[in-house]
Design a protein that fits this description.
single chain; 234 residues; alpha/beta; 7-stranded mixed beta sheet; 8 helices; 7 strands; 39% helix; globular; binds guanosine-5'-diphosphate; binds magnesium ion
């Protein structure tokens, strides 16, 4: 069994090497192997070179670099990654250090043992977590509440990065997103297939805007618009 890990990366020279090292250090349960796909979204910094260096120094790990010709956004990078994966399961991993790759294991266990198609890691079910700026916190809560109202879900953390899928299932869902609307689009389309998404608690270490956080308030509004759009159309 193989877990594919898709990393959309845009100007992440400060963290890309560290997150790759953390991922290769994780020992997956159920004897699962890892396939790491970094989609470099035309970064202007040293991200690409650092990934190349990592691949050379870790030849026994399966790390693949995919370069986007021009910057297109997180959603487009994830879609490119989905085209490349060969694993049985897939998780989205940001190129920063906000999430902990050791959380792959409880997600993997939940999806495999219950034969599910998708599970989400929730930052809010883990009461020991600190949270980001109040605006991001509130924005995330509002997006989650709207998701639950529109799609009959009982989520606590819709915009979580740790969305974990059966690979065949994920590939069966056509996506239109280019930017941060990946999250609401995939949640909407999963929900429209009649699936109640299960969550488990995960760790979260928020980074600041100075440290490179790129999501903005307007992305929250776009998320809400995306949820409404796919609920009543699309
Ligand atoms: N491919 C791509 N990735 C991006 C872009 N902007 C942000 N990202 C990546 O998306 C991930 C999430 O970004 P981040 O600012 O941490 O947002 P948040 O964690 O969702 O609040 C990181 O891995 C970024 O490198 C972009 O324009 N293109
Ligand atoms: Mg992040």
């Amino acid at each position: 069994m193989t877990l594919s890990i898709i990393i959309p990366a845009y100007n992440e020279e400060n963290t890309i090497t560290q997150i790759l090292q953390k991922i290769v250090d994780v020992k997956l349960m159920l004897d699962a192997q890892k396939e790491i796909i970094v989609v470099n979204d035309a970064s202007k910094d040293a991200t690409e070179q650092l990934v190349r260096d990592f691949i050379v120094s870790h030849s026994s790990d399966k790390v693949i670099l995919v370069n986007q010709e021009k910057n297109q956004g997180k959603g487009a990078a994830i879609r490119k990654g989905i085209e490349k994966i060969t694993g049985d399961y897939v998780i989205i991993q940001d190129a920063d250090l906000e999430y902990d790759p050791w959380d792959y294991n409880p997600l993997l266990e939940l999806i495999v043992k219950n034969n599910l198609q998708v599970v989400y890691g929730s930052r809010f079910l883990n009461k020991t977590n600190h949270h980001s700026y109040q605006s991001f916190y509130l924005g995330g809560q509002i997006v989650t509440i709207i998701t639950n109202l529109l799609y009959g879900q009982k989520l606590t953390d819709e915009p979580t990065c740790y969305k974990f899928f059966d690979a065949t299932f994920l590939k069966s869902i056509p996506l239109d997103c280019t930017g941060f609307e990946f999250c609401p689009e995939i949640t909407a389309k999963v929900a429209k297939r009649g699936i109640k998404i299960k969550e488990i608690p995960i760790s979260y270490y928020p980074r600041s805007i100075e440290e490179g956080k790129k999501i903005k308030w307007s992305d929250g509004l776009e998320a809400i618009w995306t949820l409404v759009k796919y609920r009543f159309g699309g």
